[in-house]
Write a structure and sequence with these properties.
By secondary structure, the chain is an alpha/beta fold. Helix content is 49%, strand content 16%. The longest helix is centred in the C-terminal third of the chain and has 16 residues.
């Protein structure tokens, strides 16, 4: 699987470890930066890059890291077809994919440590959408909302 990964300056310290774990798991990491924690960088720019990689078919999933993970999640979810979720526990990282077809995992680089980030990435990438009718119905409603608004 190809995984687009990006971080703003606040998430940069976790980016290298996350990219290495994606590759260790046998996936291809599309590293979109940034690696400089000292130069201010805006999370909407990184979210746009990850979203574009998914929408354009250059990646199947994405990981976004900012200070809290909230801004990255808000920004990514502005793009039609992106279902980004902020997850700081493995249940949400798995269930978000299985039930909600989450395609972008958002992490807070100032909230969680490297070990938990790696565990969340492992869980997110191992999960698969279960395709149950109730989940498809709900996703159809989300798609209708995107088209309507």
């Amino acid at each position: 699987m190809k995984v687009a990964i990006a971080a703003d300056h606040a998430g940069a310290p976790l980016l290298t470890a996350v990219a290495a774990e994606v590759q260790r798991l046998g996936h291809e990491a599309l590293d979109l930066g940034t690696h400089d924690a000292t130069s201010p960088d805006d999370y909407p720019d990184r979210a746009a890059e990850v979203a574009a990689a998914l929408i354009e078919g250059r990646a199947e999933r994405g990981v976004l890291i900012c200070g809290s993970g909230v801004g990255a999640s808000v920004a990514a979810n502005k793009v039609r077809g992106i279902r980004a979720g902020l997850c700081h526990d493995t249940y949400s990282a798995r269930q978000g994919v299985e039930h909600d077809r989450m395609n972008v995992l958002c992490l807070g680089g100032r909230v969680i440590g490297e070990a938990l980030a790696i565990e969340l990435v492992q869980t997110f990438l191992a999960a698969r959408f279960n395709g149950e009718e109730r989940h498809k119905r709900r996703l159809d409603k989300i798609a209708a909302m995107e088209a309507r608004f």
